[in-house]
Amino acid sequence: MPGRTLELLSVPYEAVVEMVGLGGPFVLWIFLCCLLLWALVIERWIYFSRVLPRESATLLERWRARSDRQSWCARQIRQAMISKLHVGMTSNYKLMKVLVPLAPLLGLIGTVSGMLDVFDSMALRGSADARTMASGVSEAMICTLSGLAVSISGMYPVYYFESRARRQTELLADAFEF
Known about the structure:
Helix content: over 70%
Shape: elongated
Radius of gyration: 25 Å
Number of helices: 5
Strand content: under 5%
Order of helices and strands: HHHHH
Largest sheet: none
């Protein structure tokens, strides 16, 4: 059974290695961008599902235990508590928001690189042989596809967490009543 599991795990690994080989060095950068993006998405999911409920419950309990909730000082403490939670909710958000448009830009660079290979090989051979052009065009298309796939798959989670952070901050502000 363990041998079968390793065999099943090797299939995606081999596919990634083959794609990097066919798509050129920029596909590797796109793949690393994808790994980082989805690691951050998983981290945010864990934060919102496990960490935030505990932190907000702790701070809310401390707020409700206060006898003074009306003074200027108490309002500043309330605002600091809400801000602390908001900072936690928006952690890594800017990096995720940079990675989404970065992937297709890396794909575009790979596309240009592949097309330059096509033109370079045409110039060396002096003709537009289909076999000569195929590898460069293939590299260009794989880079484009990889960059767009990473970007499109990352757009929803990034904007979902942005919306969720905004909504949770509003709900917490209401929960920390005066």
